[in-house]
Amino acid sequence: MPTKLVIDTDPGVDDAFAIALAALSDDVELLGVTTVFGNVGLPATTHNARRVLALCERDDVPVAAGAARPLVHPQWRQARPVHGDDGLSGRAHLLPEPRRDDEDIDAVSLLARLLAESREPVTIAAIGPLTNIATLLAAHPGAAERIARVVVMGGALGHGNSTAAAEFNIFSDPEAAHRVLTGGEISCVLVPMDLTYRCAVSADWLATLGARGPVGAALEALTPAYLAHYRKALGRNAMALHDAVAVAEAISPGMLRTESVPVSVETSLGPARGATVVDRRRPQVRAETEEPGQDRPTVAVAMDTDLDELRAFLLRRLAGQPA
Asked: Which residue windows does the record flag with biased composition (Basic and acidic residues) (predicted)?
């Protein structure tokens, strides 16, 4: 049975690869795409999402714009130095113009509608700031029981990328991330940047994708600014496809090896703001330091994967090969 999937996203180069991955996979029923502020402003992220769907000839997929800012504090910074001023290395104009307008309802309303209409629980791939998802849980409490799981690209076990402590998506709205990851309302998988950095693809991988067909060539053409950043971040001619790794897990559960542990999100205004604190102590040790009866919700944190198989999976799917 196809995976029923909604993507909540802030495109973003790696988001573009992630949307295409789902849109081109014949074992996915892509119910909708919702957009959020993040890598660039909301108008650009929404237009970018619609352009990528047009590239994949998926005019059937509705797109709705969501939050333009975080829940509480202003967004600290966008990711223009990484993704370019338009979010796609300054090359968004190379993608086809969307043939379908965005929906006349907001992202949270679309999410609630899609969940209510689905006969089976729906997976949400949340690959931007978690503002829309936190708002959904607050405004539509019954929606949680319609969600199979939320696969979140975000967080860091070691150092961050927006700050020394925090990864970009979580840092963009820590209060929203706190609600989603620690509330215990939904089953969550957290795909941290520690793993997505290890899953980076080489320039040769990109060239192979570009030679596989027009969609692959169009995606490769979006990468110059992004690839230039990751040459500095990784120290080699490669780039991280963070969000595509999370969507791969959403499509194929178990592709990433996870560990169920409590996760906290730092919401102070200090230097650790946005940090994800993953408690990997043995349960017996945790129990000794917690109040009797306290049962903190756990999150399935992705720790490892077969790197070669993951890259091959991404290449096959983005080239349009059948599942």
From this structure: 278-289
| Residue type for position 152 | V
CATH code: domain of residue 227:
3.90.245.10
309: exposed, middle or buried (Cβ count in 10 Å: 0-12, 13-18, 19+): exposed
Residue 258 lies in a domain: yes
Examine residue 323 and state whether it is found in any structural domain, yes or no. no
Q: Does 12 map to a domain?
A: yes
pLDDT in tens, 77-99: 888 899 999 999 999 999 999 99
Number of domains in the chain: 1
β-pairing verdict for 276-278 and 263-265: antiparallel
Domain that holds residue 81: 3-318
Separation CA 279–CA 264 (nearest Å)? 8
299 is a domain residue: yes
Q: Which residues are identified as catalytic?
A: 242
pLDDT in tens, 283-295: 777 776 676 656 7
d(CA 230, CA 240): 7
* pLDDT attached to residue 294: 65
